[in-house]
Amino acid sequence: MEQSRYSFLEFYYRRAKRLLPAAYVVIALTTIAAPLFLSDVGLREFRNQVIGALTFSANIVLWLQADYFGPVAERMPLLHFWSLSIEEQYYLLLPLFLVSVPRRWWLVGIAMLLVASLTLCVCLVTWNPSAVFYLLPTRSWEMAMGSLGALLPIRPLVSAALAKLRFPALALLLLAPMGFAHPVVNAALVCLATLALLRAPNWDNAVVRGMRRIGDLSYSLYLIHWPVLVYVRAVWLAEPPALAIYAAVAFSMVGSWALYRFVEEPFRRGYAMSRLRLVSGLAATSVLLASSPSLAIAATESKSDFATIRRINYGLGRACDFSLGSPPQEIPKSCQTASRPELLVWGDSFAMALVPGLAKTVGEGGLAQLTMSGCLPAIGVAAVSRELASPFSLAFAQDCIAFNDRVLAILKNRPEISTVVISSPFDTPVSGEFILLKRNGETFTEGELSLYAAVEGIKALVEAVRATGKRVVVVAPPPVGNFDIGDCLERKARGSIMLGRYSDCKIDVSEYRRRRARTLELLNEAALKADVEVVSYHDFLCDGTKCKTEIDGKFLYRDSGHLSYEGSEIIARQTNLAERLIRAAR
């Protein structure tokens, strides 16, 4: 640019030649392997990941997928492309800035960009950590730090100081995985340490040469390591043993060397191919890769429609999940099976999962559904994740309290409703990962959750419902394991590779009781203190050692804990659940 020789086409051609061949090989291999390791739902999510990776918008795709029922990171083979996408978005905008602004303003402009992005990051990290993590405006300060370092003139005095910082900077990078108190501080220290190493005077010894060799492989290793770890985890259904992780890391190292040696370096150094042929080849490959997940889905399509079997169980419909809008003023017609329903299901997503079976078996009395994902059924209190206690999550907790207030108000005006069924996993009140948000008049205060507070909260809810003249019954959550039950059942039905203790897809009773010990204690205490019946699936699903997760080949679960539509109906019919709940209510 200083010599007026800069070309946008040449710059982006070099970026494409440097990054795309190796990335495309990994995307292709990951896609070929995907049907062997991913579920039907996972394959459809993978299709979006491929499009995001190819268009360098993976960070936006992944940010938009981050919802209550969304996929978890451990099942997304191209999750790591979010950072490559941010890098390329930065490379798209930075040259435009440098071309548009006089040379004398470059340093000031980059510094202003760094400060603005860092300020935005710090201000928003507690409000919406997902957006801060994935989006360019709140991550560009890290790359701007490198741009600033490239533009800063290094004087002899500064050079001498940087030379002394080599080993402290290296030590900081080696200790960085331990983490610091604040994620932004952590990232800033890592970036500063890296910048210090890059700008320190050059020195050469065996250690540095070894680090450079690792650096040479780092892009290929970056591309390969995550899909390998995701697929290893998929085979074990849960956290793999240490030996499997070490084997995956070793495989990734060998694979990254091969990718670097036979793909990355030949293309970077000018593979014997004309520019037109290379560009047209990359364009054709992009189109082929974009369509490859759909081809993989079609080629491996099963007779069973797993996407439908494992669809999100909203009960009577998505409109009955009031986390998607404002609190209800009345029960919508679509959320009741009769004009004057006698039974109301109140709770969160676990309550939604009850509804399909009850709706089919409750009879002419009918039922209504008032549910909100992630919202503990309680009066005047809500649980907030301690790790994500941001303004966003606090606002959700306040919405949850408002929702439960509205449900109670609706009950007072619906005399035909005689029985209220309360359902939830009841795990947040007894988890150390959550704090309590409590309403005091017009204000809200945060406090510590405890078993006593949780029992008192359930008791207050039961008493408030009874004060409206209704009878109450509580439904305990279904047994759960330490794995995704729905994913396991699908893999079993598809004949996929499965290793480890969960390959039979059954729940170990002792592990379940140990994992849910505090929840079970909470429900026992609540039953005594609130004089309420707690109805459990345990006797129907479990024997002395195992709990079944399918009946006659039908999936009872859609994921790690929620009942599927078919499972809800099977359990309701075979246990006469509607009649049992009405009889147990008091």
Written description of the protein model:
58% of the residues lie in helices and 8% in strands. It contains 23 helices and 12 strands. Helix 15 (349-361) links the parallel strand 1 and strand 2 (367-371). The model has no long low-confidence stretch (mean pLDDT 89).
Break the fold down into its secondary structure elements and pairings.
Elements: H1 8-37, H2 40-54, H3 58-65, H4 81-100, H5 106-124, H6 129-134, H7 140-151, H8 156-164, H9 166-175, H10 183-199, H11 206-236, H12 242-268, H13 275-299, H14 306-309, E1 343-347, H15 349-361, E2 367-371, E3 381-385, H16 391-412, E4 419-423, E5 434-440, E6 443-448, H17 451-466, E7 471-475, H18 485-494, E8 507-508, H19 509-515, H20 517-529, E9 534-535, H21 538-541, E10 546-547, E11 550-551, E12 554-555, H22 565-575, H23 577-584
Parallel strand pairs: 1-2, 1-4, 4-7, 7-9
Antiparallel strand pairs: 3-5, 5-6, 8-10, 11-12
Strand content: 5-15%
Extended strand count: 12
Radius of gyration: 28 Å
Shape: globular
Strand order of the largest sheet: 2-1-4-7-9
Total helical segments = 23
Outline the low-pLDDT stretches.
none
